[in-house]
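User: Can you fold this complex?
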Amino acid sequence: MILSDSVVTLRPLSFSDKFRLVEIANNKNISDNLRDGFPNPYTLANAESFIANVSKADPPEVFAIVWNGEYVGNIGLHKGTDVYRKSAEVGYFLGEPYWNKGIMPRAVNLICEYGFRELDIVRIHAGIFEFNPSSMRVLEKCGFRREAIFKNAVFKNGKICDEYRYVKLLDEQNGNN
Ligand SMILES: CC(C)(COP(=O)(O)OP(=O)(O)OC[C@H]1O[C@@H](n2cnc3c(N)ncnc32)[C@H](O)[C@@H]1OP(=O)(O)O)[C@@H](O)C(=O)NCCC(=O)NCCS
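Assistant: Here's the predicted assembly.
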């Protein structure tokens, strides 16, 4: 499964990505904005077990983001289960040298188009920590809207903070809103 626009390509991860994954992921400025399942330091063993885990999914849920021929980050679209099976959550990171170049909005647009087209979902959401305006901006540029603020929902690095929920609905993706 390859998803592409004129600038960014999303492709499944492979085991040969493991060294590069450590290089881009081993950064506290990234892990500070993600759940604790994304460790810091980020070791080769972490990269190996992550790739082994995500490689089991069919269709793939996590994609490598490729820009200018380089693997620069990850994006994932995870379907819910049970009554949440028509919803999915998007999550992502980019290596720090690649921030502020418009890469992630392209990746988010590609994965949302794919999800609504192929995964039989009606809703995609993301949860952003209150101190991450850059990620909120990415979602706003991709047509997401702020749906709710979950007060005190997150405990990160020893501090309680709010989670900002952003959402995009299938109707909105199709421009029917
Ligand atoms: C968040 C992240 C994905 C952004 O991706 P990106 O490709 O750099 O996004 P963009 O190129 O669109 O740039 C970010 C936007 O936020 C804006 N921005 C950056 N810092 C900002 C701040 N402090 N306040 C407000 N807006 C800010 C930029 O100006 C830009 O918007 P613009 O195009 O309107 O000028 C990337 O920084 C990242 O991977 N961060 C670490 C991991 C992370 O936070 N993941 C998301 C968890 S929810």
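The helical segments are 18-25, 28-31, 44-55, 103-118, 133-141, 170-173. The first strand starts at residue 3 and ends at 4.
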